[in-house]
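Subject: mismatched residue count in predicted assembly?

I count 460 residues in my input, but I want to confirm that the predicted structure covers every chain. Input:
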Amino acid sequence: MNIDLYGFGPALAAGTLMTVQLALSALCLGLVLGLLGALAKTSPYKPLQWLGGFYSTLVRGVPELLWVLLIYFGTVSLMSKLGDLLNIPGLELSAFSAGVIALGLCFGAYATEVFRGAILAIPKGHREAGLALGLSKARIFSRLILPQMWRIALPGLGNLFMILMKDTALVSVIGLEEIMRHSQVAVTVTKQPFTFYMVAAIIYLGLTILAMIGMHFLEKRAARGFARANQ
Amino acid sequence: MNWEVIIKWLPRLAQGATLTLELVAIAVIAGLILAIPLGIARSSRHWYVRALPYGYIFFFRGTPLLVQLFLVYYGMAQFEIVRNSALWPYLRDPFWCTVLTMTLHTAAYIAEILRGALQAIPRGEIEAARALGMSRAKALFYIMLPRAARIGLPAYSNEVILMLKASALASTVTLLELTGMARTIIARTYLPVEIFFAAGLFYLLISFLLVQGFKVLERWLRVDACQGR
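Triage response: the counts match. Full output below for your records.
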Protein backbone atom coordinates (compact mmCIF):
# COMPACT_ATOMS: atom_id res chain seq x y z
CA MET A 1 0.00 0.00 0.00
CA ASN A 2 1.41 3.36 -0.96
CA ILE A 3 1.54 5.96 1.77
CA ASP A 4 -0.07 8.60 -0.46
CA LEU A 5 -2.91 6.14 -1.16
CA TYR A 6 -2.51 6.22 -4.95
CA GLY A 7 -2.89 9.99 -4.87
CA PHE A 8 -6.19 9.87 -2.98
CA GLY A 9 -4.73 11.05 0.33
CA PRO A 10 -5.74 14.73 -0.08
CA ALA A 11 -9.25 13.73 -1.22
CA LEU A 12 -9.72 11.60 1.88
CA ALA A 13 -8.43 14.43 4.06
CA ALA A 14 -11.00 16.77 2.47
CA GLY A 15 -13.63 14.09 3.09
CA THR A 16 -12.62 13.87 6.74
CA LEU A 17 -13.01 17.63 7.08
CA MET A 18 -16.46 17.40 5.48
CA THR A 19 -17.46 14.60 7.87
CA VAL A 20 -16.37 16.67 10.87
CA GLN A 21 -18.26 19.73 9.59
CA LEU A 22 -21.37 17.63 9.01
CA ALA A 23 -21.17 16.03 12.45
CA LEU A 24 -20.68 19.35 14.25
CA SER A 25 -23.48 21.09 12.34
CA ALA A 26 -25.86 18.23 13.02
CA LEU A 27 -24.78 18.30 16.66
CA CYS A 28 -25.77 22.00 16.97
CA LEU A 29 -29.17 21.40 15.40
CA GLY A 30 -29.68 18.23 17.42
CA LEU A 31 -28.84 19.89 20.74
CA VAL A 32 -31.40 22.62 20.11
CA LEU A 33 -34.06 20.11 19.03
CA GLY A 34 -33.25 17.85 21.98
CA LEU A 35 -33.51 20.67 24.47
CA LEU A 36 -36.83 21.82 22.98
CA GLY A 37 -38.09 18.23 22.96
CA ALA A 38 -37.14 17.71 26.59
CA LEU A 39 -38.76 21.00 27.63
CA ALA A 40 -41.92 19.99 25.77
CA LYS A 41 -41.95 16.56 27.38
CA THR A 42 -41.48 17.88 30.90
CA SER A 43 -43.84 20.85 30.51
CA PRO A 44 -47.11 20.86 32.46
CA TYR A 45 -49.15 21.31 29.25
CA LYS A 46 -50.60 18.13 27.80
CA PRO A 47 -50.43 19.12 24.08
CA LEU A 48 -46.74 20.01 24.44
CA GLN A 49 -46.02 16.72 26.23
CA TRP A 50 -47.84 14.91 23.49
CA LEU A 51 -45.87 16.75 20.80
CA GLY A 52 -42.52 15.98 22.44
CA GLY A 53 -43.44 12.33 22.87
CA PHE A 54 -44.63 12.13 19.28
CA TYR A 55 -41.36 13.61 17.98
CA SER A 56 -39.03 11.33 19.93
CA THR A 57 -41.09 8.18 19.29
CA LEU A 58 -41.58 8.82 15.58
CA VAL A 59 -37.99 9.75 14.79
CA ARG A 60 -36.46 6.97 16.89
CA GLY A 61 -38.69 4.36 15.29
CA VAL A 62 -37.58 4.99 11.71
CA PRO A 63 -34.06 4.21 10.38
CA GLU A 64 -31.60 7.10 10.01
CA LEU A 65 -30.99 6.13 6.38
CA LEU A 66 -34.70 6.51 5.65
CA TRP A 67 -34.68 10.02 7.17
CA VAL A 68 -31.68 10.99 5.05
CA LEU A 69 -33.39 9.72 1.89
CA LEU A 70 -36.79 11.15 2.82
CA ILE A 71 -35.44 14.62 3.54
CA TYR A 72 -33.24 14.72 0.46
CA PHE A 73 -35.63 13.25 -2.12
CA GLY A 74 -38.92 14.05 -0.38
CA THR A 75 -38.39 17.80 -0.22
CA VAL A 76 -37.58 18.29 -3.92
CA SER A 77 -41.13 19.22 -4.96
CA LEU A 78 -41.72 21.19 -1.75
CA MET A 79 -38.55 23.22 -2.24
CA SER A 80 -39.27 23.92 -5.90
CA LYS A 81 -42.74 25.19 -4.94
CA LEU A 82 -41.11 27.38 -2.30
CA GLY A 83 -38.62 28.53 -4.93
CA ASP A 84 -41.46 29.55 -7.25
CA LEU A 85 -43.02 31.46 -4.40
CA LEU A 86 -39.81 33.34 -3.60
CA ASN A 87 -38.85 33.72 -7.26
CA ILE A 88 -35.73 31.59 -6.93
CA PRO A 89 -35.76 29.06 -9.78
CA GLY A 90 -34.33 25.62 -9.04
CA LEU A 91 -34.29 26.03 -5.28
CA GLU A 92 -33.33 22.72 -3.65
CA LEU A 93 -31.81 21.30 -0.51
CA SER A 94 -28.10 20.55 -0.90
CA ALA A 95 -26.86 17.13 0.18
CA PHE A 96 -25.07 18.81 3.08
CA SER A 97 -28.11 20.61 4.46
CA ALA A 98 -30.30 17.53 3.95
CA GLY A 99 -27.72 15.51 5.87
CA VAL A 100 -27.55 18.07 8.68
CA ILE A 101 -31.34 18.18 9.00
CA ALA A 102 -31.74 14.38 8.93
CA LEU A 103 -28.91 13.64 11.37
CA GLY A 104 -29.83 16.58 13.59
CA LEU A 105 -33.41 15.32 13.72
CA CYS A 106 -32.26 11.84 14.78
CA PHE A 107 -29.74 13.19 17.30
CA GLY A 108 -32.40 15.51 18.72
CA ALA A 109 -34.87 12.67 19.26
CA TYR A 110 -32.39 10.69 21.34
CA ALA A 111 -31.10 13.85 23.05
CA THR A 112 -34.69 14.60 24.10
CA GLU A 113 -34.61 11.52 26.32
CA VAL A 114 -31.14 12.33 27.66
CA PHE A 115 -32.09 15.90 28.53
CA ARG A 116 -35.41 14.79 30.00
CA GLY A 117 -33.57 12.38 32.28
CA ALA A 118 -31.23 15.20 33.30
CA ILE A 119 -34.10 17.58 34.07
CA LEU A 120 -35.81 14.93 36.18
CA ALA A 121 -32.55 14.21 38.02
CA ILE A 122 -32.31 17.74 39.42
CA PRO A 123 -33.78 17.86 42.93
CA LYS A 124 -37.14 19.61 43.18
CA GLY A 125 -35.80 21.81 45.98
CA HIS A 126 -33.55 23.70 43.57
CA ARG A 127 -36.53 24.90 41.57
CA GLU A 128 -38.41 25.79 44.74
CA ALA A 129 -35.37 27.68 46.05
CA GLY A 130 -35.36 29.70 42.82
CA LEU A 131 -39.07 30.45 43.22
CA ALA A 132 -38.52 31.48 46.84
CA LEU A 133 -35.80 33.88 45.69
CA GLY A 134 -38.31 35.45 43.31
CA LEU A 135 -36.64 34.37 40.07
CA SER A 136 -38.78 34.17 36.96
CA LYS A 137 -39.45 30.80 35.31
CA ALA A 138 -37.07 31.54 32.43
CA ARG A 139 -34.39 32.67 34.90
CA ILE A 140 -34.77 29.49 36.95
CA PHE A 141 -34.28 27.42 33.83
CA SER A 142 -31.30 29.31 32.44
CA ARG A 143 -29.49 29.93 35.73
CA LEU A 144 -30.37 26.91 37.89
CA ILE A 145 -31.57 24.00 35.78
CA LEU A 146 -29.54 24.32 32.57
CA PRO A 147 -26.05 24.51 34.13
CA GLN A 148 -26.78 21.48 36.30
CA MET A 149 -28.38 19.56 33.43
CA TRP A 150 -25.20 19.86 31.41
CA ARG A 151 -23.14 17.79 33.83
CA ILE A 152 -25.75 15.03 34.10
CA ALA A 153 -26.52 14.91 30.37
CA LEU A 154 -22.90 14.99 29.19
CA PRO A 155 -22.10 11.23 29.22
CA GLY A 156 -25.32 10.45 27.36
CA LEU A 157 -24.70 13.20 24.83
CA GLY A 158 -21.15 11.92 24.30
CA ASN A 159 -22.47 8.49 23.38
CA LEU A 160 -24.99 10.07 21.02
CA PHE A 161 -22.28 12.16 19.38
CA MET A 162 -20.21 9.08 18.64
CA ILE A 163 -23.27 7.42 17.10
CA LEU A 164 -23.88 10.61 15.11
CA MET A 165 -20.33 10.62 13.79
CA LYS A 166 -20.71 7.09 12.49
CA ASP A 167 -24.11 7.94 11.00
CA THR A 168 -22.50 10.65 8.87
CA ALA A 169 -21.38 7.79 6.61
CA LEU A 170 -25.03 7.41 5.59
CA VAL A 171 -25.02 10.82 3.92
CA SER A 172 -22.65 9.42 1.29
CA VAL A 173 -25.74 7.67 -0.10
CA ILE A 174 -27.10 11.03 -1.29
CA GLY A 175 -23.74 12.01 -2.76
CA LEU A 176 -22.16 14.27 -0.15
CA GLU A 177 -18.39 14.21 -0.63
CA GLU A 178 -17.36 12.93 2.80
CA ILE A 179 -15.04 10.07 3.75
CA MET A 180 -17.17 7.23 2.38
CA ARG A 181 -17.95 8.98 -0.89
CA HIS A 182 -14.29 9.75 -1.54
CA SER A 183 -13.39 6.15 -0.69
CA GLN A 184 -15.99 4.90 -3.16
CA VAL A 185 -14.55 7.11 -5.88
CA ALA A 186 -11.04 5.92 -5.05
CA VAL A 187 -12.24 2.30 -5.20
CA THR A 188 -13.74 2.70 -8.67
CA VAL A 189 -10.45 4.14 -9.92
CA THR A 190 -7.91 1.89 -8.21
CA LYS A 191 -9.95 -1.35 -7.83
CA GLN A 192 -8.63 -1.69 -4.29
CA PRO A 193 -11.84 -1.87 -2.23
CA PHE A 194 -10.39 -3.47 0.89
CA THR A 195 -7.52 -0.98 1.15
CA PHE A 196 -9.69 2.11 0.87
CA TYR A 197 -12.59 0.96 3.03
CA MET A 198 -10.04 -0.08 5.64
CA VAL A 199 -8.50 3.39 5.48
CA ALA A 200 -12.01 4.86 5.89
CA ALA A 201 -12.57 2.59 8.90
CA ILE A 202 -9.29 3.73 10.44
CA ILE A 203 -10.21 7.40 9.91
CA TYR A 204 -13.55 6.83 11.66
CA LEU A 205 -11.76 5.02 14.48
CA GLY A 206 -9.39 7.99 14.80
CA LEU A 207 -12.31 10.42 14.93
CA THR A 208 -14.00 8.26 17.56
CA ILE A 209 -10.83 8.26 19.67
CA LEU A 210 -10.57 12.05 19.34
CA ALA A 211 -14.22 12.41 20.40
CA MET A 212 -13.58 10.11 23.38
CA ILE A 213 -10.63 12.23 24.49
CA GLY A 214 -12.66 15.43 24.05
CA MET A 215 -15.53 13.95 26.07
CA HIS A 216 -13.15 12.93 28.83
CA PHE A 217 -11.95 16.54 29.25
CA LEU A 218 -15.46 17.98 29.00
CA GLU A 219 -16.75 15.56 31.63
CA LYS A 220 -13.82 16.31 33.90
CA ARG A 221 -14.48 20.03 33.55
CA ALA A 222 -18.23 19.65 34.09
CA ALA A 223 -17.65 17.62 37.26
CA ARG A 224 -15.03 19.95 38.74
CA GLY A 225 -17.25 20.93 41.66
CA PHE A 226 -18.18 17.32 42.31
CA ALA A 227 -14.83 15.55 42.22
CA ARG A 228 -14.32 15.57 45.95
CA ALA A 229 -17.83 14.49 46.89
CA ASN A 230 -17.62 11.42 44.65
CA GLN A 231 -14.37 10.10 46.07
CA MET B 1 -50.74 12.40 -0.18
CA ASN B 2 -51.54 9.83 -2.82
CA TRP B 3 -53.10 6.98 -0.80
CA GLU B 4 -53.95 4.81 -3.81
CA VAL B 5 -50.30 4.48 -4.70
CA ILE B 6 -49.42 3.47 -1.14
CA ILE B 7 -52.13 0.80 -1.11
CA LYS B 8 -51.11 -0.43 -4.54
CA TRP B 9 -47.49 -0.98 -3.52
CA LEU B 10 -48.22 -2.25 0.01
CA PRO B 11 -47.74 -5.94 -0.92
CA ARG B 12 -44.28 -5.25 -2.36
CA LEU B 13 -43.31 -3.27 0.74
CA ALA B 14 -44.53 -6.14 2.93
CA GLN B 15 -42.34 -8.44 0.87
CA GLY B 16 -39.40 -6.14 1.64
CA ALA B 17 -40.36 -6.14 5.30
CA THR B 18 -40.10 -9.94 5.47
CA LEU B 19 -36.53 -9.75 4.17
CA THR B 20 -35.79 -7.06 6.77
CA LEU B 21 -37.16 -9.31 9.51
CA GLU B 22 -35.16 -12.25 8.19
CA LEU B 23 -31.92 -10.24 8.25
CA VAL B 24 -32.55 -8.88 11.73
CA ALA B 25 -33.63 -12.22 13.18
CA ILE B 26 -30.55 -14.07 11.93
CA ALA B 27 -28.22 -11.24 12.97
CA VAL B 28 -29.48 -10.79 16.52
CA ILE B 29 -29.65 -14.53 17.25
CA ALA B 30 -26.28 -15.39 15.69
CA GLY B 31 -24.85 -12.22 17.24
CA LEU B 32 -26.05 -13.29 20.69
CA ILE B 33 -24.43 -16.72 20.30
CA LEU B 34 -21.16 -15.10 19.23
CA ALA B 35 -21.39 -12.46 21.95
CA ILE B 36 -21.61 -14.90 24.87
CA PRO B 37 -17.97 -16.13 24.69
CA LEU B 38 -16.87 -12.61 23.69
CA GLY B 39 -18.59 -10.98 26.64
CA ILE B 40 -17.31 -13.56 29.10
CA ALA B 41 -13.75 -13.17 27.79
CA ARG B 42 -14.15 -9.38 27.83
CA SER B 43 -14.92 -9.41 31.56
CA SER B 44 -12.02 -11.72 32.39
CA ARG B 45 -9.51 -10.74 35.08
CA HIS B 46 -6.51 -11.53 32.88
CA TRP B 47 -5.43 -8.87 30.42
CA TYR B 48 -4.34 -11.39 27.75
CA VAL B 49 -7.84 -12.88 27.69
CA ARG B 50 -9.43 -9.44 27.68
CA ALA B 51 -7.25 -7.91 24.95
CA LEU B 52 -8.61 -9.71 21.89
CA PRO B 53 -12.34 -9.19 22.54
CA TYR B 54 -11.53 -5.62 23.54
CA GLY B 55 -9.90 -4.95 20.16
CA TYR B 56 -12.78 -6.65 18.34
CA ILE B 57 -15.40 -4.64 20.20
CA PHE B 58 -13.43 -1.40 19.75
CA PHE B 59 -13.19 -1.87 15.98
CA PHE B 60 -16.83 -2.82 15.46
CA ARG B 61 -18.21 -0.12 17.73
CA GLY B 62 -15.85 2.57 16.48
CA THR B 63 -16.56 2.31 12.76
CA PRO B 64 -19.84 2.83 10.88
CA LEU B 65 -21.79 -0.26 9.86
CA LEU B 66 -21.76 1.04 6.29
CA VAL B 67 -17.94 0.85 6.20
CA GLN B 68 -18.01 -2.67 7.63
CA LEU B 69 -20.61 -3.72 5.10
CA PHE B 70 -18.56 -2.34 2.21
CA LEU B 71 -15.41 -3.96 3.62
CA VAL B 72 -17.09 -7.35 3.55
CA TYR B 73 -19.12 -7.00 0.36
CA TYR B 74 -16.68 -5.11 -1.88
CA GLY B 75 -13.43 -5.41 0.08
CA MET B 76 -13.17 -9.20 0.28
CA ALA B 77 -13.08 -9.49 -3.51
CA GLN B 78 -9.70 -7.74 -3.56
CA PHE B 79 -7.99 -10.92 -2.37
CA GLU B 80 -7.29 -13.82 -4.70
CA ILE B 81 -7.48 -16.30 -1.80
CA VAL B 82 -11.04 -15.29 -0.96
CA ARG B 83 -12.16 -15.47 -4.58
CA ASN B 84 -10.73 -19.00 -4.95
CA SER B 85 -12.02 -20.29 -1.62
CA ALA B 86 -14.99 -22.56 -1.10
CA LEU B 87 -16.80 -19.75 0.71
CA TRP B 88 -16.80 -17.46 -2.35
CA PRO B 89 -20.36 -18.34 -3.49
CA TYR B 90 -21.51 -17.07 -0.08
CA LEU B 91 -19.23 -14.03 0.14
CA ARG B 92 -20.35 -12.99 -3.34
CA ASP B 93 -23.98 -12.96 -2.30
CA PRO B 94 -25.25 -9.65 -0.84
CA PHE B 95 -27.62 -11.48 1.53
CA TRP B 96 -24.89 -13.52 3.23
CA CYS B 97 -22.52 -10.54 3.28
CA THR B 98 -25.14 -8.43 5.05
CA VAL B 99 -25.99 -11.21 7.49
CA LEU B 100 -22.29 -11.73 8.25
CA THR B 101 -21.59 -8.02 8.76
CA MET B 102 -24.68 -7.39 10.87
CA THR B 103 -23.89 -10.42 13.01
CA LEU B 104 -20.29 -9.35 13.63
CA HIS B 105 -21.44 -5.77 14.28
CA THR B 106 -24.22 -6.60 16.72
CA ALA B 107 -22.09 -9.23 18.49
CA ALA B 108 -19.70 -6.46 19.55
CA TYR B 109 -22.54 -4.43 21.05
CA ILE B 110 -24.20 -7.43 22.71
CA ALA B 111 -20.85 -8.53 24.17
CA GLU B 112 -20.54 -5.09 25.76
CA ILE B 113 -24.10 -5.37 27.15
CA LEU B 114 -23.25 -8.81 28.53
CA ARG B 115 -20.10 -7.48 30.18
CA GLY B 116 -22.10 -4.69 31.82
CA ALA B 117 -24.68 -7.22 33.01
CA LEU B 118 -22.05 -9.62 34.35
CA GLN B 119 -20.45 -6.79 36.30
CA ALA B 120 -23.81 -5.65 37.65
CA ILE B 121 -24.50 -8.99 39.36
CA PRO B 122 -24.31 -8.40 43.11
CA ARG B 123 -21.03 -9.85 44.41
CA GLY B 124 -22.82 -11.62 47.25
CA GLU B 125 -24.76 -13.84 44.85
CA ILE B 126 -21.58 -15.08 43.17
CA GLU B 127 -19.91 -15.56 46.55
CA ALA B 128 -22.95 -17.49 47.75
CA ALA B 129 -22.74 -19.81 44.74
CA ARG B 130 -19.04 -20.39 45.36
CA ALA B 131 -19.68 -20.94 49.08
CA LEU B 132 -22.19 -23.66 48.19
CA GLY B 133 -19.32 -25.49 46.53
CA MET B 134 -20.05 -24.66 42.91
CA SER B 135 -17.04 -24.60 40.64
CA ARG B 136 -16.33 -21.36 38.79
CA ALA B 137 -17.70 -22.80 35.55
CA LYS B 138 -20.82 -24.09 37.29
CA ALA B 139 -21.41 -20.74 38.99
CA LEU B 140 -21.02 -19.05 35.62
CA PHE B 141 -23.55 -21.28 33.87
CA TYR B 142 -26.14 -21.74 36.59
CA ILE B 143 -25.96 -18.43 38.46
CA MET B 144 -24.17 -15.68 36.58
CA LEU B 145 -25.39 -16.16 33.00
CA PRO B 146 -29.10 -16.56 33.88
CA ARG B 147 -28.80 -13.53 36.15
CA ALA B 148 -26.95 -11.50 33.51
CA ALA B 149 -29.59 -12.43 30.93
CA ARG B 150 -32.24 -10.79 33.07
CA ILE B 151 -30.14 -7.71 33.80
CA GLY B 152 -29.14 -7.31 30.16
CA LEU B 153 -32.51 -8.04 28.55
CA PRO B 154 -33.77 -4.43 28.37
CA ALA B 155 -30.49 -3.35 26.76
CA TYR B 156 -30.68 -6.32 24.39
CA SER B 157 -34.16 -5.30 23.27
CA ASN B 158 -32.76 -1.84 22.50
CA GLU B 159 -30.02 -3.46 20.45
CA VAL B 160 -32.56 -5.50 18.47
CA ILE B 161 -34.43 -2.31 17.57
CA LEU B 162 -31.19 -0.60 16.61
CA MET B 163 -30.39 -3.55 14.35
CA LEU B 164 -33.85 -3.30 12.79
CA LYS B 165 -33.00 0.26 11.82
CA ALA B 166 -29.44 -0.63 10.83
CA SER B 167 -30.81 -3.24 8.42
CA ALA B 168 -31.86 -0.34 6.16
CA LEU B 169 -28.19 -0.20 5.12
CA ALA B 170 -28.63 -3.50 3.30
CA SER B 171 -30.28 -1.47 0.53
CA THR B 172 -26.83 -0.02 -0.32
CA VAL B 173 -25.59 -3.45 -1.36
CA THR B 174 -28.55 -4.05 -3.69
CA LEU B 175 -30.69 -6.06 -1.26
CA LEU B 176 -34.41 -5.40 -1.65
CA GLU B 177 -35.37 -5.17 1.99
CA LEU B 178 -37.84 -2.56 3.21
CA THR B 179 -35.74 0.50 2.34
CA GLY B 180 -34.32 -1.08 -0.80
CA MET B 181 -37.82 -1.99 -1.95
CA ALA B 182 -39.02 1.54 -1.22
CA ARG B 183 -36.19 3.00 -3.31
CA THR B 184 -36.97 0.63 -6.18
CA ILE B 185 -40.65 1.58 -6.11
CA ILE B 186 -39.74 5.28 -6.02
CA ALA B 187 -37.50 4.84 -9.05
CA ARG B 188 -40.63 3.65 -10.85
CA THR B 189 -43.31 5.97 -9.43
CA TYR B 190 -41.34 9.16 -8.60
CA LEU B 191 -43.33 9.53 -5.39
CA PRO B 192 -40.67 9.61 -2.65
CA VAL B 193 -42.81 11.12 0.12
CA GLU B 194 -45.64 8.59 -0.12
CA ILE B 195 -43.48 5.49 -0.41
CA PHE B 196 -40.93 6.49 2.25
CA PHE B 197 -43.86 7.39 4.52
CA ALA B 198 -45.31 3.92 4.04
CA ALA B 199 -41.90 2.30 4.63
CA GLY B 200 -41.51 4.39 7.80
CA LEU B 201 -44.88 3.13 9.02
CA PHE B 202 -43.70 -0.44 8.47
CA TYR B 203 -40.58 0.22 10.57
CA LEU B 204 -42.66 1.82 13.32
CA LEU B 205 -45.05 -1.13 13.29
CA ILE B 206 -42.24 -3.68 13.46
CA SER B 207 -40.48 -1.87 16.30
CA PHE B 208 -43.78 -1.55 18.18
CA LEU B 209 -44.36 -5.31 17.83
CA LEU B 210 -40.78 -6.01 18.95
CA VAL B 211 -41.19 -3.82 22.03
CA GLN B 212 -44.42 -5.64 22.93
CA GLY B 213 -42.73 -9.00 22.36
CA PHE B 214 -39.87 -8.10 24.67
CA LYS B 215 -42.36 -6.96 27.31
CA VAL B 216 -43.90 -10.44 27.23
CA LEU B 217 -40.44 -12.02 27.39
CA GLU B 218 -39.52 -9.82 30.37
CA ARG B 219 -42.64 -10.91 32.18
CA TRP B 220 -41.95 -14.55 31.33
CA LEU B 221 -38.36 -14.33 32.60
CA ARG B 222 -39.65 -12.38 35.63
CA VAL B 223 -37.16 -9.58 35.15
CA ASP B 224 -38.90 -7.22 37.55
CA ALA B 225 -38.88 -9.84 40.30
CA CYS B 226 -35.08 -9.85 40.10
CA GLN B 227 -34.80 -6.11 40.55
CA GLY B 228 -35.75 -5.99 44.22
CA ARG B 229 -32.80 -7.53 46.03
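Chain A is about 80% helix and 0% strand. Marking this ticket as 'not a bug'.
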